[in-house]
Amino acid sequence: MSDLKETVEKAIKCPQCKKTVAVNDNPYMPFCSERCKMVDLEAWLSGRYKISEEKNNDIIFN
Ligand SMILES: [Zn+2]
């Protein structure tokens, strides 16, 4: 009974697919899987590269 409660308390929502996953035994926190972790990382990296690209264009334009 208490084990079940603990599992619920340690559950998180994956920011990528909104799936509820248990924190226990999850090396990809706060994501549910490696796939969701990579999707988020790629989105973050591409957004970052876009910004730095725009900055570079600005410098060249000036
Ligand atoms: Zn996920």
Write a structural description:
- The chain has 62 residues and is mainly α.
- The protein has helices at residues 2-9, 34-61; strands at 11-13, 20-22.
- It has a two-stranded antiparallel sheet.
- A hairpin with a 6-residue loop joins strand 1 and strand 2.
- The protein is rod-shaped, with a radius of gyration of 18 Å.
- The structure holds zinc ion.
- Residues 14, 16-17, 19, 31-33, 36 line the site of zinc ion (ZN).
Record the SSE blueprint.
Elements: H1 2-9, E1 11-13, E2 20-22, H2 34-61
Antiparallel strand pairs: 1-2
Describe this protein with a few key phrases:
62 residues; mainly alpha; Erythroid Transcription Factor GATA-1, Chain A; two-stranded antiparallel ribbon; 2 helices; 58% helix; binds zinc ion
